[in-house]
Every structure is written in C-alpha cells, then in structure tokens.
C-alpha cells in the first residue's frame, strides 16, 4: 500500500469527480489511494460519497476562518498530517493562497469544465454557449497563482450541439471529466508527467492519428 500515490482531494459540492476517482481506485487501476477528502462546505454531498467509501474526511468551513491565509494554514496542516503527495481539486470552489501553492509546489492539480485557456472562472458552460463555440470540453491542469491558468496536462473535447443548454452541455462535459481526471492521476502515479515550463509531456503515450474534428460535420 505504501508505494501508492497518496491523494488529498478537495471538494465543495456534489463530488462526482471524487466518485469517479474512488471507482477507478476500487477497480485497482490507478496506483493511488485517497488519504483524505477535505470540503470547505459542510453540506457537500461529496462528503457522503467519501464516508460510504470509508475515506477519512475533514470539513474546514471557510466562513469560520478569519481570512484566506488562516483557512489555507489549516488546510495545509490537515493535508500534511494525512501525508498527501498530490492535491486534487475536484470541484473545489476556493482560490488558494501563495502559501498553499508553495507548501505543495508542482503537486496541485485542478479540473475545469472548459477548454482552457478559453473560459476560465465560473459559469463557463453558459459562457461557452453564449460565445457560440462549436466545441468545448474539460481540462486538467497544474494550479498556479492565476485563475485556471496553470500548465495543461490533458484535455477532452466535446461538441456543442443544437438546442444545448448549460445543463446539457455541462453533463456532456462531466462525462469526459470522469475519464480524464483518473487518467491524469494515473500519469502522476506512474511518474509519467514531465513539465517543461508551460509544456507538459506525458511519457509513453499511445500514438494518435492526429485526425481533425469538425462540428458541424463536413458534408460528404
Ligand atoms: C465540475 O464540472 C468541475 O469541473 C467544476 O465543478 C464541477 C464539480 O462537479 N470545477 C470548477 O468549475 C472549478 N473552477 P463535481 O463536484 O460533481 O465533481
């Protein structure tokens, strides 16, 4: 068990990404285990998911702290006590301070429901629809001091379809989130992530035929 990568998973809400990580771990396909789940929201359904899976949880309600620094100090303590090697933000809706980034330098990742660098921030499925893009998707990236600006590890692309609402687009994207986040964690567990400035290379990936995507599809 000791050679497994130890994850500290941070959540704020439903925790469907947490669930997909739990499911992949239970299938034995990740080379990782979750040391602790931390939520800033005492009502987060993700806490119930973690408890059902027998994973230790902590609630740090940000409203009970004097400010971001105090919140992050306690967050660092809890995650270090749990021995977390990799910090996995899974729908965690808080901005982290420089002190937190330093404490887990190059070991914090996030998933975002858009094709970064397009549409950082919040309500991004609606923003993608309003802009009229034909593709959106999701991105796993390193966390740096900006908002959703860190180096990109893996992305998935989904089409925007006629009649889409923010909800239908979000659920199409979420299905892909549930695939790429476990994949990204496996890359870390297998030591395959090589970061060169902004460019992240993954060693030993399958070759791809480089085919383009079109939406709407080209006429035959
Ligand atoms: C996911 O779509 C995730 O990408 C997004 O919140 C949702 C959480 O769902 N995260 C962000 O927008 C972070 N800026 P979940 O709680 O069911 O995993």
What does this structure look like?
This protein has about 220 residues and is an alpha/beta fold. About 30% of the residues lie in helices and about 25% in strands. It has helices at about 15-25, 45-50, 70-80, 100-105, 125-130, 165-190, and strands at about 5-10, 30-40, 55-60, 85-90, 110, 135-140, 150-160, 195, 200. It has a seven-stranded mixed β-sheet, sandwiched between helices. Helix 1 links the parallel strand 1 and strand 2 (about 30-40). Bound molecules: glycinamide ribonucleotide. Glycinamide ribonucleotide binds near residues 16 and 46.
Offer a few descriptive terms.
220 residues, alpha/beta, Rossmann fold, 2 domains, 6 helices, globular, binds glycinamide ribonucleotide
